[in-house]
Amino acid sequence: MKTIEQINQHNVKKILTEKKIPEFFPGDVLKVGVRITEGKKDRIQYFEGVCIAKKNRDINSSFTVRKISFGEGVERTFPLYGTVIDTITVVRSGKVRRAKLYYLRDRTGKSARIVEKIRKKIGIEIDVKPETVNEENIAPVIAKSEKKPEVQTEQKKESSEEKK
Q: Whole-structure pTM over 0.85, yes or no?
């Protein structure tokens, strides 16, 4: 007999095969595409703001996005695996040291800004095919190396003449 947790995990895996959800954290600026049904028509309305909280509870996972609209703070909580969400895109990553950014509710203007996190890729991805070594490939390298010492000696002579 399956427990409720196992059923929820199975449903999460099933949803993730159909829909791609990016990795995001609190402090990131998100653009959430929300499906809105008006009568018989469906449309997508985008809600862009700072993610101030994220709750990871299998199928019950949710996240809260806050934006300032016409001078008023608007917060909206979305279910992570819900059918209401069409797309989630990370506009930029924020550098924060807290999991819940509820302190942003009291702040406005410059004090409510979040510094952008610069992500660095570690490692080198090499997809270059190795070249075969021929006499044609080696010949230009040898010719270049022979010319370089001549140029350096001329520069040394000029510098010694300038010293006198």
A: no
**DSSP letter, residue 40:** T
Domain ranges of the chain: 4-112, 134-164
Residue carrying the six token digits 């998100």: 30
- What is the 8-class DSSP label of residue 39? T
Nearest to 59 by CA among 23, 6, 17: 6
Give CA angle at 51 (45, 57), nearest 5°: 100
Who's near 29: CB < 8 A, 6+ residues apart? Answer: 48, 49, 50, 51, 90, 91, 92, 94
* 4-112 is a CATH 2.130.10.10 domain: no
Q: Is 69 exposed, middle or buried (0-12, 13-18, 19+ CB in 10 A)?
A: exposed
Among residues 42, 45, 65, 61, the alpha carbon closest in space to that of 53 is found at 65
Q: Three-state SS for 41?
A: strand
d(CA 90, CA 30): 5
The string of pLDDT tens digits covering residues 59-118 is 999 999 999 999 899 999 999 999 999 999 999 999 999 999 999 999 888 998 898 888
Cα–Cα–Cα angle for 47, 106, 70, rounded to 5 degrees: 40
